[in-house]
Amino acid sequence: MTLFMEKAVISINGIITPASEAKIPVLDRGFIYGDSLYEVARTVNRTPFQLNEHFDRLWKSSSLCKMPFTFSRDELLKEVLQTIEAFKKNDSQSEVYTRIMITRGIGEMGLGKSAVQTKNQRVIYCKGFEPISDQKFTRGMSLCFSSRIRNDRRALDPAMKSGNYLNSVLAYLEAEERGFDDAILCNAHDQVTEGTTFNLFAVIKGVLRTAPLSIGILDGITRRDVIRVAKEQSINVLEEPIHKDELLAADEIFITSTLREVFPILKIEDRSFEHPGPITQKLRIAYREWAAQS
Ligand code: PDD
Questions:
Q1: Does one domain contain both 162 and 253?
Q2: Are residues 117 and 168 in the same domain?
Q3: Among 208, 226, 238, 255, which one is least packed by beta carbons within 10 Å?
Q4: Is 192 exposed, middle or buried (0-12, 13-18, 19+ CB in 10 A)?
Q5: pTM listed for this prediction
Q6: Domain range for residue 74?
Q7: 240-251, pLDDT tens digit by residue?
Q8: Does the CB atom of residue 256 touch ligand 1 within 6 A?
Q9: What is the pLDDT of residues 77-124, one digit of tens each?
Q10: Same domain for 103 and 124?
């Protein structure tokens, strides 16, 4: 167990325990069918960051997943804040990673609602995490194109942040096998959608490009903020489909996510970049400054 794990805490339906002791019934639908939703939030300077935005997206997922919640926003917020505080008591330094997981509930075999007891299960997992250091940023990461396509919106809408992550897990395992750090998923038309756990941006002919939400991606909270910050910096932003060949010819590529903020890609298939590009660096700084103030 890592040091972070030893200090980690988990709240299950409001009851906080050390992570190593937390248990969930086998008949939970999250375990059996991946019938669950989740969010990953973090602290900035040990203060909860953008919980409102994460809650908004969780409630949007609830509607996309036809999973009405049997608890209120205030109840969940209270539990999340309590779990973060419990972790902070165990660890006086680290930033806090917070994973909020909601399952449809405990039930019998069978897909219908009648097989489910009426209550959702709420699980909140808090552990420490290290924000991306300058050294890590400079090293960047490598990406390959997965041979697997992103789930089509009509199959399993990627806008719904569900616990069923097999589309991403299998793409990640393929990247690992091929010696890359992570993978990008395209759609059936070879247009870039997003990565396994991140959104993707590219600088192409001086314009900052990213796939539109309509292509079938998660509405990333960092993606939204980076688009806004880029516009404030007078950078031209275009939310339009990017063909994988255009991405291979881009001047800069970076990813965005809650945990990795703005993070450079220094290798994509057999194309390499020497350093994080100037726009990537500028946006990382501008995003961090904004995040520290909000
Ligand atoms: N991942 N796309 C996917 C498929 C994701 O899983 C995530 C987040 C993002 C970025 O969204 P945001 O900027 O709101 O974090 C995009 C989280 C961090 C995770 O699963 O750990």
A1: yes
A2: no
A3: 238
A4: buried
A5: 0.96
A6: 3-130
A7: 999 999 999 999
A8: yes
A9: 999 999 999 999 999 999 999 999 999 999 999 998 888 888 999 999
A10: yes
